[in-house]
Amino acid sequence: MMSSTTEKSVLICAKAFPPVVGGVESYSEHTAQAYLRCGVTPTVLTSFPGESGWTTREYPEGKIDVLNVGTGSQPKILARLARAARSQTRANRFTFCHATTWRAGVALLPWARTPRTAVTVHGREILINPFYLRPVLRRALPRFDLLASVSDYTGARLQQEFPELQNSKGRIVSFNGLSYRREACLHTPSFDRSKVRIYSFCRLVERKNLLNAVRAIALLKDKRLPVPFEYVISGTGPLADEIRAAIDRLELHDHVRMTGYLPDSQVIENFKNTDIFLHPQVAAVSDLDIEGFGLVIADAMSFGAAAVVGKDGGPSDFIEDDQTGLIVDGGSVEQIAGALERLVSDEKYRQRIATQGRAWCLDNLSWDNHVLDIMRALEV
To answer: Residue 298 in contact with residue 365, Cβ under 8 Å?
Structure first.
């Protein structure tokens, strides 16, 4: 509910926002905070469970007005977002508008005629859509002044799926930032442990490929490695029971445990105590369900974990194999096991990979840079 006298302001339209937990939801909050740090006042229109209406969120950077339009069917939510966008663009002179997904942008576009508009492209949300939404998507994307992809991989998939966008007026690639930059910068990694800790933290869905991760641990179980290891899995999702059953079947209770959901404070502590972050993602659902960037991987690396990631998706944009992490074929249990064995067995090698990966993430990944890239591209 900002006034029209604000020098620079952005209207953010987000499909969802914390307290809803998820990658896009976190993206929306991180960008809103970054806009504040960059001297831009954000107003957020979004949907999440709970009481609808305006609230003011307080952050270290300042205050953000958030309008929750409530929950319901997707058409109802989009209609409410559209009404809110119309009301806000009539009452306030925003410098520009930013839709954090294309569907939220559909609610914004009809009313954002004067300010310039940007939409973020994460990956799977442009590839997996019901057939009846594909025409809407094709008509909506060219109307934005800027399409901001979060990785080169995502940008390439956008071009592949929508070749008509090749001559569109504004396209950039700008990497995500880090979720816990301050905490990561203050942390001093330890590389001298009596037990090597392998960690996965993600939504337990097919593309994260944790069933193959568990199978790889089974291959390591009987090897005579120089140091013991344990594998910890955090997160919830539809494959939780199947992963648990695989642990039972392969008799891995001495090596693998699942923690379920964790609050942010515990996630940070887990990152601090992680030696190897395992994320052997694949492209699922006929190559459409992709990892657009891999923020949790970058977060783990920023605390000093050596990353083992799959070759599919955005993580290969910021991980150079054998330099800042290890890239494997997620479909090969043997490759995953081989990468883990090398890192567990060779402490100096693990330290080199972890140190170089951490330095790259801290030097290159910043939410402030991300929103500044968007603002420069929009010329605002």
So the answer is: yes
Whether the upstream peptide bond of residue 228 has omega within 30° of 0, thus cis, is no
State in words which class domain 9-177+366-378 has: alpha beta
Report d(CA 96, CA 151) in Å as an integer.
Answer: 23
Name the nearest CA neighbour of 324 among 297, 290, 291, 295. Answer: 297
Identical topology for domains 9-177+366-378 and 181-364: yes
Q: Which residue has the tokens 């445990």?
A: 257
Residue with tokens 């307080």: 58
State pLDDT tens for residues 211-249.
999 999 999 998 889 899 999 999 999 999 999 999 999
User: Which tens digits make up the pLDDT trace of 368-377?
Assistant: 999 999 999 9
- pLDDT over threshold 50, residue 51: yes
DSSP string spanning 116-131? EEEEEE-SHHHHS--G
Residue 324 CB: number of other CB atoms within 10 A? Answer: 22
What angle do the packed helices 23-37 and 367-378 form, to 10 degrees? 70
The CATH number of 181-364 is 3.40.50.2000
Q: Is residue 365 a contact partner of residue 318, using CB atoms and an 8 Å limit?
A: yes
Q: Cβ distance 258 to 233 under 8 Å?
A: yes
Question: In the chain, where are the structural domains located?
Answer: 9-177+366-378, 181-364
Residues written for the chain: 380
- CA 380, CA 366: separation in Å to the nearest integer? 19
Mean pLDDT, residues 133-140: 90
Q: Taking 70 as the threshold, does the pLDDT of residue 45 lie above it?
A: yes
- Residue 174 in tokens: 């700008």
pLDDT of residue 114: 66
**CB-CB contact of 42 with 35 (8 Å):** yes
Helix pair 210-221, 240-249: axis angle to 10 deg? 20
Instruction: Read off the tokens for 144.
Output: 């934005």
Give the separation between CA 9 and CA 83, rounded to whole angstroms.
19
Q: Please, are residues 272 and 240 in contact by the beta-carbon 8 Å criterion?
A: no
* Count of other CB atoms within 10 angstroms of residue 195: 10
pTM of the full predicted structure? 0.93
| CB of 237 closer than 8 Å to CB of 261 | no
